[in-house]
Specification:
The complex is a heterodimer. Chain A is of the alpha/beta class. Chain A has helices at 18-21, 30-34, 47-55, 78-82, 89-104, 108-114, 116-124, 127-135, 137-147, 164-170, 187-193, 195-207, 222-226, 230-249, 259-272, 278-286, 290-299, 320-323, 330-335, 364-380, 393-403, 410-417; strands spanning 181-185, 211-213, 254-256, 287-289, 312-317, 341-345, 387-390, 406-408, 421-422, 427-428. Classes of the chains: A alpha/beta, B alpha/beta. At the A-B interface, α2, α4 and α15 of A face α6 of B.
Chain lengths: 429, 432
């Protein structure tokens, strides 16, 4: 056979897909060198073993995964970040976990942690009661003993001033109307726990002349994806596509402040769930993390730079989900233009909480040990530091829990730099 | 706008970026992953073997004249290759890693490999220096019981077969780690802890015979490597050296970390997980220019604009080239023509270990005397694109044992060409 007459199209394998990317693994072990989880525990054998290696022994018709240790993968994606051949290790692990869940079901605890939106809704009308019920020492002990949620892990508190949605509703007559429009994806944490993040984002976007539209939307589904509950996550994603893809098709950017939510809309959900329909693709291509969006404005000379001096010593950690966007660190690029801010860039791999991972009683200490290099970095810059900055909510909670220093989303810092926001009280000025 | 975008984070990309930053340029590196240095023994090989010659090269710079005419070393000339390596030695020392060579800095040394072969090496980390096989002191090669990537008996037996006094012994796992499942890098980081290295020193003491030098797998410390070496030598009273392991390779990772830190100190960003997937072209009066390079993100391509671009993505090993089952072989980003045979029946000679090397590894991107890629007709493809390292044609870095030397020399020289070209352009603009 004359080998050079074979057409490449005779090999229709999608080499970029999750399943086939494992064939790109050359066993070099760079991933294991940098894996922050296997560095602190023997319970996780490392990305190469649990990912591309073990995956050769997993088949969809095979009832048991060869490696339960894959459940100890935190999904931080440091492995993907360093892999020289493009193996989608974290995604391989996520699918393996989903297969285990499919075979053996999942604990109630993981079901609860996956239902961030439901929890948020449940507590929003009686936030004081909900906060007391969740945060008193007795219930934390019970939650640990009965359900397996680590008693020390930094759970959020429901907003006492109403949800972000209620605020948008209340202030609708005061909101900017403009030809330039963006859609805002708030995510569950902003909706129910931290409405001030959404307020800061709206203030910054309006300051730059954008009308902010907040259509009905769901949880992005990430907590379910990372707990292996793919079917329910697919339901959420379908619903978000139905509600948001039309805006994306009409050319309106869908901008989010929760960098893990925007990552899920763009990539995690379509890739892990194999949802490559036209709507999912339109939403993927139309979604922006907020600083990615602002940096794009900046590159075109359209970002307002009427900053006040903001005297801050600011350690900044770009969380794993932000780095997984592969857009660099646009928050640094923007905040470095604010007079008065001294930025310190973290090169730590992960804060350890990794979404819902650090809330699990058997993983809490692993998460704290993983985060130690970040906490160490913050402690080195603690003198004169009022706040740290980080784009993901759970990472900020973990940072505050471990270092005792308040943490802010970079959008809050930017809103303050425009003179629109009080960093101390977290209120619009 | 950036002055220079470097694509690739292996030794050639990091060296180019560092030399360009030293020349005052603003530089960014984008790379698919963290780079092939992590697979390397951390040594700087310049020229170990000439094609078809059965014996190792003794004087690498003197041997350059015997390489093929368009070999990257011939393009640069022996003098510039030697100067680049001396400059690299200084830069890496400033970054905190000592690299040493033969006293005259003209000859190769023969240091033991992970299988006990003698590797012709030009510069080695100071920690590997005392493994010099030409020195007479007998060697005690010490492994760690349970470590998968280092086999001391294999090293010692093969050294002994070559007439070198060497024997093997083991220290227990507990002397290097408390946890079970550790790789080389994790062990090295563990030994940064003084308590852990005291345990290792204690275990080593029981094994030594007078007059022996101790060879250990290259796991002796990461950030505190020099201190770990000094302390173990003081505690045991013996001369110590590291032997490179199978990957993951700690000496390679140390070199990567030192270069990365030097780049950070010069405000050069290294963006990994940013795979270059496309580019744009401007047709100017001086011919075609690369206008931008795009990298993949979670949604849409991200555009990087720079005045100059350096391709440092490597060859077959580094991932800069790819092929399809028809035998077509191409450079991934700019689709530059390659001198690799485009018929896969011509890729290999019948003998796998043919001393002349294999045609598929000898081919690559053909460049002019300024290291700028050429098209099939011998003209520059883009006025602002340079190529360095493993991507270059007419060299077989693995067979020649020239990988690091080519990476460093072409990286340094390309950075100088880029800087000169940008100065000329700026002067032309100013004059206009």
């Amino acid at each position: 056979m004359a080998s050079n007459t074979i057409e490449a199209s005779a090999f229709p394998i999608a080499w970029e897909s999750v399943d086939h990317s494992l064939d790109e693994c050359i066993k070099c072990n760079i991933c294991t060198m940098y894996c922050p989880v296997s560095a602190v525990t023997d319970l996780f054998a490392g990305p190469k073993y649990s990912g591309p290696q073990a995956d050769r022994f997993r088949a969809s018709d095979q009832p048991h995964s060869p490696d339960h240790g894959v459940d100890y993968c935190s999904g931080c994606r440091v492995c993907n970040d360093v892999c020289p051949t493009g193996v989608k290790i974290a995604e391989i692990n996520a699918r393996a976990r989903a297969q285990i869940v499919q075979d053996r079901g999942m604990p109630l605890r993981n079901r609860l942690l996956g239902r961030n939106e439901l929890m948020g809704k449940a507590g929003q009308y009686t936030p004081r009661i909900a906060n007391f019920a969740l945060h008193n020492p007795l219930s934390r002990v019970l939650a640990e003993k009965l359900v397996g949620i680590a008693r020390k892990a930094p759970l959020p508190r429901w907003s006492l001033t109403g949800s972000f949605g209620q605020w948008m509703q209340r202030t609708r007559t005061r909101r900017l109307r403009s030809d330039k429009k963006v859609v805002y994806f708030h995510g569950c944490a902003t909706m129910y726990y931290e409405p001030f993040i959404g307020k800061a984002a709206v203030a910054v976007l309006e300051h730059n002349g954008f009308e902010v539209i907040v259509p009905p939307q769901n949880c992005c589904g990430l907590p379910m994806l990372s707990n292996g509950e793919f079917k329910a996550a697919a339901g959420y994603h379908r619903s978000n596509v139905a509600r948001l893809a039309g805006f994306a098709r009409a050319g309106l950017p869908v901008v989010g402040t929760s960098t893990s939510c925007t990552l899920t809309l763009k990539e995690e959900a379509p890739e892990l769930l194999d949802m490559h329909d036209a709507g999912s693709t339109a939403l993927k291509q139309g979604t922006w993390d907020i600083f990615e969006f602002l940096a794009d404005l900046d590159a075109r000379g359209e970002l307002r730079t009427d900053f006040r001096t903001l005297p801050l010593n600011l350690p900044y950690h770009a969380p794993c989900q932000q780095r997984a966007h592969r857009v660099g660190k646009p928050a640094l690029q923007i905040l470095s233009q604010v007079p008065g801010i001294t930025l310190h860039e973290s090169h730590a791999r992960c804060c350890g909480i990794a979404g819902t991972y650090g809330y699990k009683v058997e993983k809490y200490q692993i998460g704290m040990d993983v985060g130690e290099e970040l906490f160490q970095f913050v402690r080195e810059h603690a003198a004169g530091t009022e706040f740290t900055a980080c784009d993901t909510e759970t990472c900020r909670w973990q940072l505050e829990h471990a270092t005792g220093i308040a943490s802010r989303h970079p959008i809050e810092i930017l809103a303050a730099a425009y003179g629109l926001y009080n960093l101390e009280t977290r209120e619009l000025t | 706008m950036l002055d220079l975008l470097v694509i690739g984070a292996g030794l050639s990309g990091l060296t180019t970026a560092l030399a360009a930053a030293e020349a005052g340029l603003t530089v960014r590196i984008v790379a698919k992953g963290l780079g092939a240095l992590h697979w390397s023994a951390g040594t700087i090989d310049v020229l170990g073997y000439l094609p078809g010659a059965p014996f190792a090269v003794e004087e690498p710079f003197a041997a350059i004249a015997q390489l093929p005419e368009r070999h990257p070393y011939r393009i640069l000339g022996a003098e510039r290759v030697a100067a680049s390596l001396r400059r690299f030695q200084t830069l890496i020392a400033q970054a905190g890693l000592d690299y040493t060579g033969a006293p005259d800095l003209a000859r190769n040394q023969l240091l033991p490999s992970a299988v006990g072969a003698m590797r012709p090496i030009f510069l080695a980390p100071a920690a590997q220096q005392h493994g010099d096989t030409q020195a007479s002191a007998p060697m005690l090669i010490v492994g760690v019981a349970g470590l998968r990537d280092f086999y001391p008996e294999l090293v010692a037996e093969n050294l002994a077969k070559q007439g070198i006094h060497a024997r093997a012994a083991f220290v227990p796992w507990e002397s290097v780690a408390d946890q079970r499942d550790r790789n080389n890098m994790q062990l090295a980081i563990g030994l940064d802890d003084p308590a852990q290295r005291r345990k290792l020193a204690q275990a080593l003491k029981g094994l030594m015979r007078p007059g022996e030098r101790i060879g250990m797998p290259a796991i002796l410390g990461m950030a505190d490597h020099a201190a770990v070496m000094a302390e173990l030598e003081a505690a045991t009273g013996a001369t110590l050296f590291e032997v490179p392991t199978l990957p993951p390779s700690v000496p390679g990772a140390r070199l990567h970390a030192a270069l990365r830190n030097a780049l950070r100190a010069r405000a050069v960003r290294l963006e990994s997980n940013m795979e270059a997937i496309g580019f744009g072209v401007d047709e100017g009066p001086q011919g075609a220019h690369v206008a931008w390079v795009e990298t993949a993100t979670s949604a849409r391509p991200l555009r990087h604009q720079a005045r100059a671009y350096v391709l440092a993505t490597g060859g077959v090993l580094g991932g800069g080239f790819t092929s399809d089952p028809t035998g077509r072989f191409w450079e991934r980003i700019f689709d530059l023509p390659l001198t690799v045979p485009q018929d896969r029946r011509a890729w290999f000679r019948p003998a796998f270990l043919d001393t002349a090397g294999q045609p598929v590894f000898h081919g690559g991107v053909a460049v002019d005397d300024h290291l700028q890629p050429l098209d099939g007709a011998g003209s520059r493809v883009f006025a602002n694109l340079w190529a360095v390292g493993g991507a270059l044609a007419d060299a077989d870095p693995i067979m020649e044992r020239s990988m690091e030397g080519i990476a460093i020399a072409t990286g340094m020289v390309a950075a100088a060409h880029v800087a000169a070209s940008l100065r000329t352009r700026a002067a032309t603009v100013a004059a206009a």
